[in-house]
Amino acid sequence: MNITLRVWRQKGRDDEGRMVTYKLTDVSPDMSFLEMLDVLNEKLTLENEDPVAFDHDCREGICGACGVVIDGEAHGPEVTTTCQLHMRSFKDGDTITVEPWRAKAFPVVKDLVVDRGSFDRIIQAGGFISAPTGTAPDAHANPIPKPDADRAFDAATCIGCGACVAACPNASSMLFTAAKVTHLGMLPQGQPERASRVVNMINQQDAEDFGGCTNIGECAAVCPKGIPLDTISQLNRDLLGSLSKGIS
Amino acid sequence: MSENDLYIEGAPIRDEKAPEGPINERWDKRRFSAKLVNPANRRKLSVIIVGTGLAGAAAAATMGEAGYNVLSFCYQDSPRRAHSIAAQGGINAAKNYRNDGDSIHRLFYDTVKGGDFRSRESNVYRLAQTSVEIIDQCVAQGVPFAREYGGLLDNRSFGGVQVSRTFYARGQTGQQLLIGAYQAQERQIAAGTVQMNTRHEMLEVIVVDGKARGIIARDMVTGEIETHFADAVVLATGGYGNVFFLSTNAMGSNVTAAWRAHRKGAHFANPCYTQIHPTCIPVSGDYQSKLTLMSESLRNDGRIWVPKEGDDTRDPRQIPEDERDYYLERIYPAFGNLVPRDIASRAAKNVCDEGRGVGPGGLGVYLDFADAIERLGMDAVEAKYGNLFDMYQRITGENPYEVPMRIYPAVHYTMGGLWVDYDLQSSIPGLFVTGEANFSDHGANRLGASALMQGLADGYFVLPNTINDYLADGPFEKLDESHPEAVKAKEQVTSRIDKLLSINGSRTVDSFHKELGHIMWDYCGMERNEEGLRKAIDLIRELRAEFWRDVKVLGTNEEFNQALEKANRVADFLELGELMCIDALHRRESCGGHFRAESQTEDGEALRHDDEFAYVAAWEFGGTDSKPVLHKEALEYEYVEMKQRSYK
Amino acid sequence: MDVRLNSNLKWQAVANSTLTKKRSTAYGSTVALKSAMAASGAILVLYLIAHMYGNLKVFAGQESFDGYAHALRELGYPLLPEHGFLWVFRIVLLASVLIHIYSAAVLTIRARRAREHRYVVKKRVQRTYASYTMRWGGVLIALFVVFHILHLTVNSIAPGGKSDSPYERLVNGFQPEFWYVTLFYVLSVIAVGFHLRHGIWSGMATLGVNKASRQGKINAVAVVIALVVTVGFLLPPLAVTFGLVS
């Protein structure tokens, strides 16, 4: 396959950034999208041009490191991570536009690499259960109804890639935050901190300059792990409950 | 002391910290004899922890909670991305919730036997004891393990053991356990006890007066070379499978932290013990960057075969039954397709070496579900394996419900690592090593669902109860950046980076890495022999020289420079690869993941030589371009009788 | 940046470690604002339905329509002062409108700030057309409401002549020769329909009603209310324009 790539190049956080066009020949349909970028980078290096920086690590769809906007869609045309997207999803002769996640809370580090530290800080604000090592009762002390455990698991599969933010017209991280609120809120162990957790996480989310949710659903539609949109409603319910108790 | 052309044999060593006495009392004894640090004094002590996988994040969370000042480092943009996240199957624990005869002793026995009698009894027993607490801890943190309708935890059997002791969270157990540890660590970051440094790569250890006192790390965004001091340093930096270039490891997984520590005096133990997993998706072209594991459970219902004749390019569905060779069923009628990982992997390699492999490059065998679909029905197969089939289809573009899957073995885990004593302290005082980065618990072969168990045992329970014995003598002398050892370490880092950037040769870093990977795979992979290993050593030396002459790394240090990061890592792999070959060459026996062609039974099975090789090979760095020094730590078995494995 | 003290360490300021930003209270959070928008929106939707019901009285003749309008003014009298209920009602509506617009404005500004640099290429994945029209549609509706009050309530804009009878104001205002008034009205009502289509769904989600199993129903309710309100409001003026009511 022959592919024309339009790639966002930006030297650093304060650089303006621009689209640069590259042509690649002999692209195999069996390559992953990132392997195609590897090939581009080998070529650029040998031509003494700066290779394109992009985040990636496990390349099996679970670490959440990779993620770019491809032709206007977060992670590209398939509902999966960028590393699991393969070139067979494109056609010979296609022009493919590649951009970084764009959000004020995800400043560009270089080219397609962004800083998602804001997600870590949202977790720091309350995305945990306080259980110091060694204090735990027997694992069977608290049976959990299977539907609750399953819903907690569905929410817990979030990989923190940031596609939800990238796809959201408001650059909101509600799906990310809601997934954690739902995961921990469905479990008996998560109840003692439930009311304060949601408040602290939402306050941090706002402080990071993420936008608000308008329930449009683009986030859930691009989520490679299928985090359900209704987790956002659960977060809202929890937050309103906390506010009604005067916890803010 | 003796010397040959490749290495020098030094004095034997032993683990001074493991207590004597009944095996089930040793861990209690050690916890009692270890000096404690009063909570008020912990504030005055600092610990550097490199790596944020299960072993690193669990240790950071636990030690931060205990009141120590923890400095945590990871090369990823977030600690949540460490490669523990990719573990699929599960985590073992001797809970005996199934009332099926499991016990701490049985888990201990299975692990020692599975490790082919090359691990320490004391360590493995402690691992089995601790396994029970891990599950409790994780459930308390909110890890959503699979549950039954009664609300209790579900278990399954895994890796051929006869009891159901594996706890799991669908096919994402590693992810869920890591997120639990990550959240506990983030909680400590918010509390101010853990200071997190993301996108930081450790490039050197600082040793002062024989003690590990800090690290040199590169800020991967700005390129700043930073000096960090502490009272102790913990490496939780994972395995070195990426020396093969293609492996199931993450792209960034590397040996640099461990290797730099090795060069500063930490012994590297059993580097040749590599686990090669039989069911991975094969390579599809030379652009391939990594290999993806498919759960071993597929072998429960799939049948593995290749065509009887070589160069058979027919559609597999067109190949009649009598022209297929179900070679595992043929050679191992008792276990069939369920033989252990190492045996299944080697058999696949053998049929491909005979030219009967399938798919691009002839490196693959069929894993066929046609019989299973006929026997169980399409729906049952989909319910059991649907996720895996989808993953396969996504990667290969082929539908495994219709066409047999193609699989091939891939490097998956490294049992070797930095040598540690019972306290997880390396041969450099103050340098501790946890998780896959150390060598201690799996011997020559790791059982399924045991990697997660070891990482969390080390991080949550072992290290936090042993490191205090060392820290009780602290705080140590206050150091600053002008200390000669710190200056020297920093200078080593900057001069190496300057050198890499100045060569401006004609080959990319990846091209060297790929070539190294081919050498390692061909000569130090599933089957090793003297001639091949000697050849590999020569090839690696040549390649290393060429690397330092002709590598091309663009850009500068003072920027986000991924090629420079890779070059630093590959430079260390090029040294490690040679030591792996030397270790493999010196161990003239077959055991676990190490199969020497010269040491096999008449029917081609692995043959151990317990009289000669029942020891840990701990290698001391002998100097650049000098021979490494071998120290043997004898292994004694009081509680498990040494036997040869047989699966026929 | 955060620097902590330690006797033995050089703690460094790092880009990505601790919570350094100032905390606000969750009463001013995006979620709370959005909830205020949903609650005020709910009041306005209920009002719209009642208003539409009143409008349809036009088909029962002038007496019925004017009687209804008069009865609204007298509602609660003599328990309340004359026009008392009406003013309470107007104040509640006005407050709802102001809260609705204020929340929308603040949230819009935050959303704009959250993405300073736009995508070069952006594709819609599954969002509805209605969800696109919320902000500009809302502005159009606000302008229309001002015109609408001046036209049919205060009657200071009276294209077809002033009248004390609400019925006559209506009939005068939508005569065929004032087709542009009718057109503006129609477009605005359609904008209201779109606004309700996404707004009802979004408000219910914001107030925590959305569950995976209910999503279909909530969307159906939103579509039905949007359609009924749109058609219900379009009938009277179009009936006037096309001479069915005179």
Question: What's this entry about, in short?
Answer:
Chain A is an alpha+beta fold and 248 residues long. Chain A has 8 helices and 7 strands; from the N terminus they run ββαβββββααααααα. Chain A folds into 2 domains: 3-109, Ubiquitin-like (UB roll) (Roll); 116-132 and 140-244, Alpha-helical ferredoxin (Fumarate Reductase Iron-sulfur Protein, Chain B, domain 2).
Write the layout of secondary structure elements.
The complex is a heterotrimer of chains A (248), B (648) and C (246).
Chain A: E1 3-9, E2 18-24, H1 33-46, E3 69-70, E4 73-74, E5 95-99, E6 108-110, E7 113-114, H2 117-126, H3 146-156, H4 163-167, H5 174-185, H6 194-207, H7 218-222, H8 230-244
Parallel strand pairs in A: 1-5
Antiparallel strand pairs in A: 1-2, 3-4, 3-5, 6-7
Chain B: E1 2-3, E2 8-9, H1 26-33, H2 39-42, E3 46-50, H3 54-66, E4 69-73, E5 91-92, H4 104-114, H5 121-141, E6 166-167, H6 173-191, E7 194-197, E8 200-208, E9 211-219, E10 225-229, E11 232-235, H7 256-263, E12 268-269, E13 274-280, E14 303-307, E15 324-325, H8 327-331, H9 341-353, E16 365-368, H10 370-376, H11 378-396, E17 405-414, E18 417-418, E19 431-433, H12 451-471, H13 484-503, E20 507-508, H14 509-523, H15 530-550, E21 551-552, H16 562-586, H17 610-613, E22 615-620, E23 629-634
Parallel strand pairs in B: 2-23, 3-4, 3-11, 4-7, 11-19, 20-21
Antiparallel strand pairs in B: 1-2, 5-6, 8-9, 9-10, 12-18, 12-22, 13-17, 14-15, 14-16, 16-17, 22-23
Helix pairs in contact in B: 3-6, 3-12, 4-5, 5-12, 10-11, 14-15, 14-16, 15-16
Chain C: H1 30-56, H2 62-74, H3 84-114, H4 129-132, H5 134-153, H6 166-173, H7 179-206, H8 215-241
Helix pairs in contact in C: 1-3, 1-7, 1-8, 5-7, 7-8
* Range of helix content of chain B: 25-40%
Main β-sheet description of chain C: none
Query: What is the terminal-to-terminal distance of chain B?
Result: 41 Å
Cα radius of gyration of chain B in angstroms = 24 Å
Number of helical segments with 4 or more residues of chain C: 8
Oligomeric form: heterotrimer
Instruction: Domain count of chain C, please report it.
Output: 1
Q: What overall form of chain C do the CA principal axes indicate?
A: globular
Query: How many strand elements of chain B?
Result: 23
Could you name the ranges of chain B where pLDDT drops below 50 across 5 or more consecutive residues? none
* Global shape of chain B: globular
Largest chain-chain contact? A-B, 77 and 81 residues
Based on secondary structure, the structural category of chain B is: alpha/beta
